[in-house]
Amino acid sequence: MSAAPSPPARVVLDRRTRVLRRGGVVRVLGGDPVTLVTPTPSVAGLLRGQVLTCDTPAAAALARALTDRGMAHPDATRPDPAHPARALGEVAVVIPVRDDLAGLAALVHALAPDLAGGARLVVVDDGSAVPLAVPPSPAGERTVILRHETSRGPAAARNAGTAAAVAAGARVVVYLDADVIPLPGWLGPLLAHLDDQLVAAVAPRIVAAEPGRFWVRGYETARSALDMGPGPARVRPRTRVAYVPSAALAVSPHRLPPVPDGAGQGPFDERMHVAEDVDLCWRTDRAGGRIRYEPASRVAHRHRTAVVPLLTRRAFYGTGAAPLADRHGAAVAPAVAAPWSLAVAAGVWSGTPLGLAVAVAAAARAWSRTRALTGDGRAAAELVRRGVGASIRQLPEALLRPYWPATAAVLVATAPSGSRPARALRRRVAAAALAEGVWHWWSARDPGRLPVDDPLGHVVLHRLDDLAYGVGVWRSAWAARSVAALRPEFRR
Hints:
Layout lengths: L9 E4 L4 E5 L2 E6 L4 E3 L3 H4 L6 E3 L3 H12 L3 E3 L16 E7 L3 H10 L1 H5 L3 E7 L16 E6 L5 H14 L4 E5 L3 E3 L4 H8 L4 E10 L6 H9 L9 E2 L13 E4 L24 H11 L3 E12 L5 H12 L2 H8 L7 E2 L1 H12 L2 H22 L2 H24 L3 H11 L5 H23 L12 H26 L8 E2 L2
Parallel strand pairs: 7-8, 7-10, 8-9, 12-15, 16-17
Antiparallel strand pairs: 1-5, 1-6, 2-3, 3-4, 10-14, 11-15, 12-14, 13-15
């Protein structure tokens, strides 16, 4: 694959990005994490709207700086006339599957247009009880079928499929699990991102195959663990989109970092049977590769529709915390806070006049220091406002998700006293659990998606979801005999 223009022909400013103009100075506020940059006067004039056209070297350099910071995103929905569409003959779809013949058949049927256009098909039967018969497809002789006699896990299955795809001449590998169905127009935006030689992987948005509005179906429609939301993003640890799932993921294999010695032959660490996709994302980012999340491309997933399977899966996801902490250290910290933001959150949730006064004083001091650093009171106020909002949300999220066993232990220990502080503490925790749950429901609104009309059921399932995930995190910590996955990080 030859080097392509980088970045794409157009980039679009993120909806959270603000271009601030004051006294002839232009500053850009946004990104993830939120930062403030001051472009040189020679390129600041290019920021005249939401779209930046990369038709000059200066514009291309500015676009790269903005997209790397999450302040803007490549527009992959419009073809670049300077770069023709990638031939499907360079693409191989790898499907790891176990005991799901119906799902495999439905997926192969949905892929028929892409396979007819020249894409290759690699199916890896990862130890199915009865060997799976791959349905006929337009791929014909471009189909490779592999079988593991015993299940070796999704990482090993994808690695085997990747090796077969590359050996057959594929330059792009698209991983699709057997429980997903790509929707029309899904592949083009992914391939457009991979035309940038710095992009190693790109993921579509994973939506509900059978959306619902109530109880488990409604909760999964609104807040599936596989759905990274409606906004595009650069994928990095500790950002809004910290990872993307490998249930649907397109990669350029030669741009991915190798796994550590003894962890398998391919991009995935075969020692990991959960969170192997998170590990791949973070290793790739650390090696300098870009990973993009592109919601303009959509793939439908058969979500779980009953409580027990939902919570069992969430607990399973939680068990990936300790292996990730072992490999990536503080990147997996369940809470990250600066002292001032922690003071603000604690003061607000205390609900007392003294606590609120402390919160206001901490926010004011943070604004004063930020203004001194930036020289811009308006930008400082916006930075502090966003930090305050994040810290107020993060405190109950932490206490009720990864740290809920510790929170529960404190409540149980103080209950017998019946003292006023103990009663106040219980009221504060109950209020936080309700308020954070309602926010979780309200913020899941998406104009392009079916509305979820069950706030009470959503809040209940969200709290159960947090309990299940927390159980998984603590189980993984116990199994590893390490508290690394539970250790918060405090920044100055």
